[in-house]
Design goal:
Blueprint lengths: L2 H4 L4 E4 L2 E4 L10 H4 L5 E7 L19 H8 L2 E3 L2 E2 L5 H10 L3 H4 L35 H7 L3 E6 L18 E3 L29 H16 L6 E7 L10 H12 L7 E4 L9 E4 L5 H23 L6 E7 L26 H4 L3 E4 L9 E2 L3 E2 L2 H10 L3 H4 L8 H4 L10 E5 L10 E6 L2 E6 L5 E5 L15 H17 L25
Helix pairs in contact: 3-9, 7-9, 8-9
Length: 511
């Protein structure tokens, strides 16, 4: 038996005894332990929530996030937690399958064909990509369902057009509000126009309604002997920006008292237009602030419902976002500072996100770690905590964070990869990234230009060190190119509408 399993800190106070949460994988005939209920799992995913939006990460935030801050105090806060992609669907696919978006071809957000979303083009056509989850393979829900878990999905899915691609076909017993759309079709106030959610009374707020649905499920789970996996996937704080009027007015009044400073700054851009690309640099959008407070309030209500039903000590709670905050592009919702960029970009502002794991009884609770983590790690970590043999699940690209939760932070550094061969709605460059230890290498796909940052000393990515450290650039470039080959990475394509640009740059793999 693995020492990491035996020594796990995941313990529950049940019947006055500290019991290992990994009882299911223990081989010794200890009937009392083996018959204990497996841990419940509450996975909370907030859409477009920025790293700098949450006070536990950014004490200077202008938003109110006491519930998320409290959850951070009850769990392990990953300062360097990453979304698998700078946009939503790829990260969601990675989270639910444990596979890197590039490995399964889901490298851009899935279009809602009923709304005629188009694929953006520039000098070149974007890479081809897949708009559905793999037909063969496991999800967290299907694996846990096989272990006797009750499984439920609530909120934003955005992983397929047809009903056969929605949560109930990927291991979830219950699907409330999950369908093709990436934003609420009818907005945040009823009527919702959602095929998986009956509409509420006029004026009902979607974030409140989804939380009510989750609390109702928790009430039912409290009466059951079977463990549960509940994925609470809020549509907030994605556009359209809509918040309760009273709360919006509160922030409008509060922000009016602040010293007037420029709200936007110009950033680099690739679109052939004279209109400058702007980045929000202060958190003074009152509607967005209201939406953050509202989702925070509801996260608190949901976690409190576990406590009210005496389930909190039996439940792993995980909180993360699907990409960085929307600071550039269609809405300029928030500011990602001190991080550079935002949603749609592979600078830190687009991929570094709130990332908290709360394991009852863990000695790491209330602490933080700078060990990098990524969306795919969630499935591997849950399987390890619950005691599920990863070999039976099949290959996944994430690694278990249980050693980090146990305080074992001296393991060998591993590279993290990000690959976005598309033109983002937010004006982001098509690029790839490898982060290894303190270093982050960015490779641009139109021209092959390389940037190197010491991300530990310079998380704002202000100083490109590529010219100063050519050996480090060559080493990391080789690692990245090997990863391209291993994952059949796709790149930009020639654009017949812009023949003057010819064929796009492609990496010389095998160098």
């Amino acid at each position: 038996m693995e020492d990491s399993v035996i020594n796990t800190v995941f313990k529950f106070v049940l019947g006055g005894l500290f019991v290992s949460g990994l009882a299911g994988c223990l081989s010794q005939p200890t009937t009392e332990i083996e018959t204990k209920k497996k841990p419940n799992v509450l996975l909370i995913l907030v859409d477009d929530l920025g790293w700098a939006d949450v006070a536990a990460y950014n004490p200077d935030t202008l938003y109110s996030t006491p519930s998320m801050d409290k959850l951070a105090s009850e769990g392990l806060l990953f300062t360097d937690g990453y979304a698998a992609s700078p946009v939503c669907s790829p990260t969601r696919a990675a989270l639910i399958t444990g596979k890197h978006p590039t490995a399964i071809g889901t490298t851009d957000f899935f279009r809602n064909k009923s709304r005629r979303h188009k694929y953006r083009e520039g000098k070149f056509k974007p890479a081809s990509f897949v708009e559905k989850l793999p037909e063969q393979g496991s999800t967290i829900a299907s694996v846990l369902k096989g272990e006797g878990y009750q499984t439920a999905f609530i909120g934003k899915w955005h992983l397929g057009q047809t009903e056969q691609m929605w949560p109930e076909f990927y291991g979830f017993d219950v699907n409330i509000a999950g369908h093709a759309a990436g934003s609420p079709s009818g907005g945040y106030f009823a009527p919702y126009k959602n095929p998986r959610l009956t509409s509420g009374p006029d004026g009902e707020y979607l974030t409140d309604r989804l939380t009510n649905e989750a609390i109702n499920l928790v009430d039912g789970y409290a009466k059951s002997d079977a463990p549960f996996f509940l994925m609470m996937s809020y549509y907030s704080v994605h556009t359209p920006l809509q918040g309760p009027k009273k709360l919006v007015n509160k922030y409008r009044e509060r922000f009016s008292q602040l010293d007037k400073t420029p709200e936007f700054a110009q950033v680099e851009q690739i679109w052939p237009t004279d209109k400058p690309q702007l980045n929000r640099v202060v958190q003074t959008n009152p509607t967005y602030a209201a939406m953050v407070e509202k989702v925070d309030e509801n996260i608190g209500r949901l976690v409190d419902s576990l406590k009210a039903k005496n389930l909190r000590d039996d439940t792993i709670v995980i909180l993360l976002s699907d990409n960085g905050g929307l600071s550039i592009g269609e809405a300029h919702s928030t500011s990602s500072l001190p991080l550079r960029g935002g949603k749609g970009w592979l600078y830190e502002g687009g991929i570094r996100v709130p990332f908290i794991i709360s394991v009852p009884g863990s000695e790491s609770n209330g602490k933080s770690t700078s060990v990098p983590a990524i969306s795919m790690d969630i499935s591997a970590t849950l399987y390890d905590l619950i005691g599920i043999d990863a070999k039976r699940v099949g290959p996944i690209d994430g690694e278990s964070l249980l050693p980090v939760i146990n305080g074992e932070t001296n393991s060998a550094e591993r590279p993290l990869f990000f690959h976005y061969p598309h033109y983002s709605n937010q004006g982001g460059f098509h690029r790839a990234v490898v982060r290894l230890g303190d270093w982050k290498l960015i490779e641009r796909f139109e021209d092959g230009k390389l940037q190197l940052f010491n991300i530990t000393k310079d998380k704002a990515e202000t100083t490109d060190l590529a010219a100063e450290y050519p050996t480090k650039v060559a080493e990391m470039k080789k690692t990245l190119h090997q990863w391209y080959q291993q994952n059949d990475a796709k790149f930009l394509r020639e654009n017949p509408k812009a023949p003057k640009y010819g064929a796009p740059w492609k990496p010389a793999l095998g160098e």
